[in-house]
Amino acid sequence: MKVITLIVGIIAIAFIAWWFLGKHDASVEQAKVNSTNQTVNIQVKGGYSPEKVVLKKGVPATLNFKRLDSSSCLDHVIFSDLGINQELPKGQVEQVKIDTSKAGEYDWECSMNMFHGKVIVK
Amino acid sequence: MKITTRFWISLVLSLPMLVEMIIHPFTGWMLPGGNWTMLAFTTVIMLISAGPFVSSAWSAFLKHHSNMDTLVALGTMITYLYSIYAMFTGRPVFFETAAFVITFVLLGQVLEAKMRSNASSAISKLVNLGAKEALVKRGTEFVKVPISQVVKGDLIQVLPGQKVPVDGRIVSGTSNIDESMVTGESMPVAKKAGDQVIGSTINQNGSFVIEAEKVGNDTMLAQIIEIVKKAQNSHAPIQKLTDKVANVFVPTVLIIAIITFLVWFVFLNKSVPTALNYAVSVMVIACPCALGLATPTALMVGTGLGAKKGILIKNGEILEAANNLTAIVFDKTGTITKGKPQVTDVIGNKLVVLQVAASLEKLSEHPLAPAILTAAQTENVEMKDVTDFKAIEGHGIKGIIDGKTVFVGKPEIDQYTVETKMSDAITKLQKEAKTVVIVAMDDKVIGLIAIQDAPKETAAKAISDLKAEGLKTVMLTGDNRQVADSVAKQVGIDQVIAEVLPIDKADEIKKLQHNYKVAFVGDGINDAPALTQADVGIAMGSGTDVAIDAGGIVLIKNDLEDVVRALKLSKKTFKRIKLNLFWAFIYNILGIPIATGLFAGIGFTLSPEIAGLAMAFSSLSVVISSVLLGKAKI
């Protein structure tokens, strides 16, 4: 019994290390662009999907965040480089406008800095 | 469901179990229905109150992420499921543990959410400052229109007690205006036609009409809000460590919890419940939230507090840099001095001397001309007509008044006869670092005018305060050494770098940076390169867009004491960040080993309930500590 527990425990540790700490691909989404603007819908549930958003430079962009998660961790989305701190009431779509005049990478994070996402303007 | 509702449900259903736990040892009282009642209550708590933790943790898990919810969900689910198994196999149950942990964690989150909105209140206060309507001239009448419809060039009437709606210039009327909400200046400021007014300040007694100059996002208030927003959400370099820790925190804690279980159960031969208790305690006590909240909340409160006093610190990086400064460099003109040269002495027949000088200077564009003209105006001197006006580059100006050749210029010109009395006066005035001009008529010096840009009243006090903080004080100026030295002496500055061209100021800062961490204080007009070069650029008073862009700290008032306050605020905020981080780290570093049962040998252990309570209050205490910073005196 104890030997089995020990083996199961060690397997669990290995799994946790691999699952959380190993390298995994994040979901990427290209913005839907039309001539006047581009939008991306981002679902907020246990993190962000997609976690990486690619925007076209020079086209006004809107990210539509919709929070479906009750965790208070995720109740704000913060773009520290852009000075954006947007409250995300649960179940509502909140628009975040991104200035795409300059190419670059802008990180976003939850209010406790545990979940992250990234906007790439190019 | 709202977090508050989840908390109350959980509290109400936990209370009977708490009562039983406390009085059972004394009276033997048990809940009616025993384990079945506990199972029912706890199941409701797990479904309604803890459900969101579990679903959040699961969606995060699918994305290879983990957070606090992961720990809480796993810890309580394990306890709950084990208790059900234990109940049906006739072993002791501990439903109440799961229930209490959920209650405590939710209590912490409810309080924390309140405190967090408290910490970020500065921005909404600023936003609410803005006026909603304005009395705008349309045709011949002033009519009320929403603020969004006001455009540049509109004439706007401001009545007593009203807010000035936008930035502009007074065209008619006078009043006293309370500008404290924007500049932090507590005394009302008297304003007359031609003066600038700032939007959202309050008109006290008079009525006046302004011409709108800046509206919408260009107003000073809008710019301040923009800066504060960016500052409050910026990162401080000190956070980097916590960011790294946060990424591996939860998985590491999970691994420690498994090891804890294995050690107690497999190696120390304890029962499953005992080993499980320790493992769950580990999961529940670990608190990544406190780490995540330590820096942003303090930064938010600190920068918000500054904004209230007219001190805008741009971001966390600047705030941190402001803590390591060893030298502070001031621009002279307009920063240490008032920036407006004034006539201090007139030697000779005052009225005649001023009349001749002012009549000539009226035609000149020399920087000292306004000082002489102002002095002539206050003495009510009548201007004479000048013919044959001529500027002699680098020397002075000459012309003919009433048939006599007159000259105003540098005393170094030796073609005029100077009486000993006059030449003694020149030497004396120059020793006082005043700029002296001679006024000559027909080859003879008839008088002298001394002009000086006097230091600000608050300069000496501010400099001595900065020295008391251990900073080396330096003055950087394009002026000549004698004038610079004298001003430096008056206000107590340590070192003077004089005769520096504006374009070389940044290089001088660079030289100082070999030995010092340098802050540069300037009014921004031609200081932008120096402001950018310095470790911390402090732009003062001018409110020019260039300075706001170049400065790391922007002072809205033109008060040197605000430099002292800004540095003090940075120090206090940074200290608070360090204190928060210290507690958040030490809490986890001490809490986790205790929870594993490492000190069980000396009877020192933590039950999961207590661990849950400690966890809830560790993140709460960090937020409270940040909010308290808002009460600090600066």
What do these coordinates show?
The complex is a heterodimer of chains A (122) and B (634). Chain A is 16% helix and 43% strand. Chain A has 122 residues and is of the alpha/beta class. Chain A has a single domain, classed as Cupredoxins -  blue copper proteins (Immunoglobulin-like). In chain A, β3 and β4 (48-49) form a beta hairpin. The mean pLDDT of chain A is 87. Chain B is built from 23 helices and 22 strands. Chain B is α+β, with helices and mostly antiparallel strands and 634 residues long. Chain B has a seven-stranded mixed sheet, with helices on both faces. Chain B has a six-stranded antiparallel sheet with strand order 2-1-3-9-4-7, with no helix packed on it. A six-stranded antiparallel sheet of chain B has the order 12-17-16-15-14-13. The two termini of chain B are 42 Å apart. Among the domains of chain B are: 151-214, Calcium-transporting ATPase, cytoplasmic transduction domain A; 313-338 and 456-566, HAD superfamily/HAD-like (Rossmann fold, 3-Layer(aba) Sandwich); 342-452, Calcium-transporting ATPase, cytoplasmic domain N (3-Layer(aba) Sandwich). The interface between A and B is large, with 38 and 52 residues.
